[in-house]
Design goal:
Pfam families: zf-RVT. With 318 residues, the chain is mainly α. It is 50% helix and 4% strand.
């Protein structure tokens, strides 16, 4: 509801074209406003009473923003107030407009003469990518706003239906080598002990932690075996092995749930040792992973009962 109200206020108002100065709203609202030139063509006004449609700045005509179409030098000679709404230019069933002084002004006046106002409220129409949409879809908007990039081979192993969001996000960081492991901290020029917090036997890196580290391997190996997966230890080839593993949808989902839960649990243990001096045994961590996976499978029962039952049956069978 809050987002909807902000959306209606910003994109219905003249202030869509101004920067906010209020410290309460400034950062978040201005971040949205930085995108206004990109999304302007996607937000169109359907004219009815004209009370919330601004002559110069609303996207109500085929010419887009009139303050741009009728460029600044010409606009100065077209005496319409900068904050005028269409309702203010309508009187007794007709338009009150100055005489045209250029071809573009004539085009706008001619177009406006084909339109009339009524008693209904103006409407906002959503046209992302020049296609009208009756609902807002975050994924579709993201695809329009993000820079184009080639698909990565590992995306289905990181982002998958039924996964735990915080696990998937952390694994995404790991795959992109964005976690603050000690090798990265040293590369930034900061002084720190380079040894692995899990085994204290080798330098810490993503590749070492998953699963060259003997402590991490001691945890992952029985979990992988429970999923009927003969895992390699090398991080550089494990993703490809997961991708090529012959299995059906239920088996693959269980394997990815267990793999990501293992990575998340090990990373949490690593941070607990670093920041809280708290150590958990390998058996304790394995129990945590099993409980996490079981709880996730159970949580799917409401929306996907058959899939959840198949996962749970496979989990307890192995």
């Amino acid at each position: 509801m809050f987002i909807r109200n902000v959306f209606l206020y910003l994109f219905n108002a003249y202030f869509f074209y101004k920067k906010f100065q209020s410290s309460k709203q400034k950062f978040h609202v201005n971040t949205l406003l930085d995108l206004r030139e990109i999304i302007y063509p996607w937000i169109r006004k359907q004219i009815h009473n004209g009370e919330t449609t601004y002559f110069w700045t609303s996207n109500w005509s085929p010419y887009g923003k009139l303050s741009v179409y009728l460029n600044a030098s010409v606009s100065m000679r077209f005496p319409v107030c900068s904050t005028a709404t269409l309702a203010e230019l309508w009187d007794n069933g007709g338009w009150i407009l100055p005489n045209a002084r250029s071809d573009r002004q004539l085009e706008v006046i001619t177009y406006l003469s084909t339109r009339s106002l009524n008693d209904y409220k103006d409407e906002i129409e959503w046209w992302p990518g020049n296609q009208r949409q009756m609902s807002y879809k975050t994924g579709a908007l993201y695809d329009l706003l993000r820079p184009p990039a080639p698909a990565v081979a590992w995306h289905k192993e990181v982002w998958f239906s039924g996964g735990i969001p915080k696990h998937m996000f952390l694994v995404w960081l790991m795959v992109r080598n964005r976690c603050p492991t000690r090798d990265r901290i040293l590369s930034w020029g900061l002084l720190t002990d380079s040894r692995c917090l899990l085994c204290n036997a080798a330098d810490e890196s993503i590749a070492h932690c998953f699963f060259d580290c003997n402590f991490a391997w001691e945890i992952w190996k029985p979990i992988a075996t429970k999923c009927n997966f003969t895992s390699l230890r090398q991080w550089s080839v494990l993703l490809a092995q997961l991708k090529g593993h012959p299995s059906n949808r239920v088996q693959k989902t269980l394997l990815l749930l267990c793999w990501q839960a293992t990575l998340y649990t090990l990373w949490t243990e690593r941070n607990n040792r670093l920041h809280n001096s708290r150590f958990t045994s390998s058996q304790g961590l394995i129990a945590q992973i099993k409980l996490t996976v079981k709880n996730r499978i159970s949580s799917l029962r409401i929306e996907r009962p058959k899939f959840s039952s198949a996962l749970l049956q496979l989990w307890f069978t192995n």
